[in-house]
């Protein structure tokens, strides 16, 4: 097994017992009508890369 040196560090989320990545992913721009100029293929590539690096803290806007 190899170690990925490009993985995101994790931290505990308060006292919840959850561990989240230190760097969050701001996903607001992925919404088609929310951010003009965003390309779905580029957005999905970036999101998949974030998850592949160990990211699990995704900020979304809920209405």
Automatic annotation (TrEMBL):
This is Aldo/keto reductase. SUPFAM superfamilies: NAD(P)-linked oxidoreductase. It comes from the Bacteria.
